[in-house]
Write a structure and sequence with these properties.
heterodimer; A: 2 strands; 73% helix; B: 309 residues; 1% strand; transmembrane helix (chain B); membrane (chain B); MetI-like (chain B); cell membrane (chain B); MetI-like_sf (chain B)
Chain lengths: 292, 309
């Protein structure tokens, strides 16, 4: 009897596991990028200022003067492309994580407070969002990152200025619908302070949608950062970033296609996988994409 | 209808005021003052004082702000120190190139997006649908500037079919416009697919079928027509993103529009041009959003009657 019950269950679990395999791909890919960003620089040496010109514009797989193999080729200054991709991963992931952290903290706080409080505060928030969205997000980031001194914190700030908006929108929606629920009413009637209601009874419900949104925002932020670096805006010239490497390769397209092509593939693969993961999480947590 | 437009215009004016203020704050908070940028490092004390007074930078901040708002109203952003002429004049000269680029890209995105969405939505879950879904995810994930470079590599340098940069002939427009259009094509395709799929189960489609219309007539005449309404909305809503994309694409292809102008201006601290371009783009986006809203209410009779009542 029990054996008969166990078997289908096991079979069902196996089927679920098999069906789940494609769904796990994004986790694996993103984990590999994270590993590359954390451990890569410990394994591979790279100095953007060191320019061995005798190794310039070598094709992928060619041997450099020191006898090592440049698996992904070298750029116009003889610097290794693989190393630039590895170090660039660190830059992109750092800026992406920092921006999403700042944007979600600001956005969630503002969203919960204004959704719960409603009234004038909520109206002011709506107008602020209107004003910030008058500019294309990337244009505002270009202007902010462009006028201040080049540094990572400035880039994070420039990207956070618009990135918090979708977090505020989503959490505001959750807070608005929760404030009418019985347990929130009960807490209010029992005299629980407003701040405790927001933290203990409203905030926990925003976690799912916020995590899903954070994933999608992370992809947008990484893309935006690459765009800024491509334009030569924001990061100090000593920083290694995919956008910058792609820009450097643009004038050598005819002779050395690999300089621009390969970092772009690295970037696209990461964004595609984060996007798929974000869509999965969004489907699971039942909130619409905050993008539109 | 009129009332709604007036209301939206008032909000738009408020938003433009806010946008102008945001730019004022950013430019004022920026390190390095415009006077030293303008005169260069060799300027004498006297020259610096004279220009500071001429630009009104010695007055209190709120006075500067008020006179700045006055300048914005007159569309006067001052001289560009780099170009040696009024900033707005230089900006307006670059505007047509950007309009050409964004209009062409919008046309490509709408036509290709509708076609792809129609193909995919006809049989949800079918092979075509799956290919289109995968393609739209990829198109939305690729960085535009990199796609542009890859298109140059393939069509300009590899196949030698099209010019890689610059302006002149319609052929010069092809690669930049396609690059800019691709992510928006994906958005339109996704939206069309979902609204076609939804429409196919609506009663009016069943009625059309039971009248004996061919599947083609049902799709194009009934399902697609209704799917156009959300497409108009999304195109309007995406105008900001499209202008943002244009800024990047113009820099890939050395396209002489607002985008390449503003990036050069930011890099050289030419604040007069930065202010003129950002506010002009904000204004254009606002007007287009409004136009999309109005068009949307015209297209959908249900909303039209609601707005009237």
């Amino acid at each position: 009897m029990s054996g008969a019950a166990v078997l289908p269950r096991r079979a069902a679990a196996a089927r679920r596991w098999h069906r789940g395999v494609p769904a796990r791909v994004p986790y694996v890919v993103i984990a590999l990028y994270a590993l590359m960003a954390v451990l890569g620089p410990l394994v591979i040496d790279y100095d953007p200022v060191h320019t061995p010109l005798q190794d310039r514009l070598l094709a992928p797989g060619a041997r450099i003067a020191s006898g090592e193999i440049a698996w992904l080729g070298t750029d116009a200054l003889g610097r290794d492309i693989l190393a630039q991709i590895v170090y660039g991963a660190r830059t992109s992931l750092t800026i992406g994580l920092a921006t999403v952290l700042v944007a979600s903290l600001v956005g969630v706080t503002i969203g919960v407070v204004s959704g719960y409080a409603r009234g004038r505060l909520d109206a002011v928030l709506a107008r602020i969002i209107d004003i910030l969205q008058a500019f294309p997000a990337i244009l505002l980031a270009i202007v902010i990152a462009g006028v201040f001194a080049r540094s990572v914190p400035v880039v994070v700030l420039a990207l956070s200025v618009t990135a918090w908006i979708s977090f505020a929108r989503v959490t505001r929606g959750v807070a608005l619908s929760l404030r009418e629920r019985a347990w929130v009413d009960a807490a209010r009637v029992m005299g629980v302070p407003v701040r405790s209601i927001m933290v203990r009874h409203v905030l926990p419900f925003t976690v799912g949608p916020v995590v899903a949104l954070a994933t999608l925002e992370f992809a947008l932020v990484v893309l935006a950062e690459a765009g800024l670096s491509f334009l030569g805006i924001g990061l100090p010239s000593t920083a290694v970033s995919w956008g910058q490497t792609i820009a450097n390769g643009q004038q050598y397209l005819e002779t050395a296609w690999w300089i621009s092509t390969l970092p772009g593939i690295a970037l696209s693969l990461l964004i595609i996988n984060i996007g798929i993961l974000g869509d999965q999480l969004t489907a699971r947590y039942g909130q619409r994409r905050g993008r539109i | 209808m009129i009332r709604m437009i007036v209301r939206r215009l008032l909000i738009g004016l408020f938003v433009m005021w806010g946008a102008a203020s945001v730019i004022f704050i950013i430019v004022r908070a920026a390190p390095g003052d415009p006077v030293t940028v303008f005169l260069g490092p060799d300027a004498s004390r006297e020259q610096i004082d004279r220009l500071t007074a001429a630009l009104g930078l010695d007055r209190p901040l709120y006075e500067q702000y008020v006179s700045y708002l006055g300048d914005v109203l007159r569309l006067d952003f001052g001289e560009s120190y780099r170009l040696g002429r009024p900033a707005m004049e230089a900006v307006l000269e670059r505007l047509p190139a950007t309009i050409d680029l964004t209009l062409t890209a919008t046309a490509i995105a709408v036509i290709a997006g509708l076609a792809l969405g129609l193909l995919a939505g006809r049989r949800p879950g079918g092979a075509v649908d799956r290919v289109v879904s995968a393609a739209t995810i990829a198109l939305q994930s690729f960085p535009t500037f990199w796609v542009g470079i890859m298109l140059v590599l393939t069509f300009a340098l590899g196949l030698r079919l099209l010019p890689s940069a610059g302006v002149g002939t319609p052929a010069h427009l092809v690669l930049p416009a396609v690059t800019l259009a691709l992510p928006f094509t994906a958005i339109v395709a996704r939206l069309t697919r979902s609204s076609i799929t939804e429409a196919m189960s609506e009663p009016y489609v069943q009625t059309a079928r039971s009248k004996g219309l061919t599947e083609r007539q049902v799709l194009l005449g009934h399902a697609l027509r209704n799917s156009l309404i959300p497409v108009v909305t999304i195109v309007g809503l995406q105008m900001g993103a499209l202008m943002g994309g244009a800024v990047i694409v113009e820099n890939v292809f050395a396209w002489p529009g607002l985008g390449s102008l503003v990036v050069g201006a930011v890099a050289n601290r030419d604040y007069a041009v930065v202010q003129a371009v950002t506010l002009l783009i904000a204004g254009i986006v606002m007007v287009l959003n409004l136009a999309a809203d109005v068009l949307y209410t015209r297209l959908d009779p249900r909303i039209r009657t609601e707005a009237r009542s």
